[in-house]
Amino acid sequence: MSDDQARTGPITQTRRTLLAGAGAVGAAVVLAGCGDDDATPGQAPTSGGPPGATATGDAGGGDRDSSAPLARTSDIPVGGGTIYASKGVVITQPEAGQFKAFDPICTHQGCPVSNVDGGTINCTCHNSRFSISDGSVKLGPATKPLAAKEIKVEGDQITLA
């Protein structure tokens, strides 16, 4: 048998089936660990830190209908914020009644930001930190601010503008 040929007998097929099954089980275990039954749909679960600290999942996906409410004003803590990964936005409230919105993708290498804590929007891929007031870089390696997003606040509803 040459190096270009491969065995395709019952032993090889059984081995392939076993490896494929093991890979599928491993993927299912990893994905099951990502879920949180207590999370509000469209809102990232809290990270276990102080109030306003949140985590995020898929920053690029989801329904981004600008007319649907993103959140209620009461959902956004003063001095903190919330990441809405499925909507592609981070909403912050630097001061009472002042709401800001930013893109949830770090400007350093495109990782999704992971939480809002201590007055900053944080990317744990490389520890960049951005201001909740204007998205400016507070700690690198990122050198560019998070892009601002336009939002509307009507009553207690926040929507994309």
UniProtKB/TrEMBL annotation:
SUPFAM superfamilies: ISP domain (SSF50022). Keywords: 2Fe-2S, Disulfide bond, Iron, Iron-sulfur, Metal-binding. Residues 35-75 are annotated as: Disordered. The keyword Magnesium does not apply. Pfam families: Rieske. Its cofactor is [2Fe-2S] cluster. InterPro entries: Rieske_2Fe-2S, Rieske_2Fe-2S_sf, Rieske_Fe-S_prot, Rieske_Fe-S_prot_C, TAT_signal, TAT_signal_bac_arc. Residues 68-160 form the Rieske domain. Residues 35-57 have a biased composition (Low complexity). Iron-sulfur subunit of the cytochrome bc1 complex, an essential component of the respiratory electron transport chain required for ATP synthesis. The bc1 complex catalyzes the oxidation of menaquinol and the reduction of cytochrome c in the respiratory chain. The bc1 complex operates through a Q-cycle mechanism that couples electron transfer to generation of the proton gradient that drives ATP synthesis. This is Cytochrome bc1 complex Rieske iron-sulfur subunit. It comes from Micromonospora maritima.
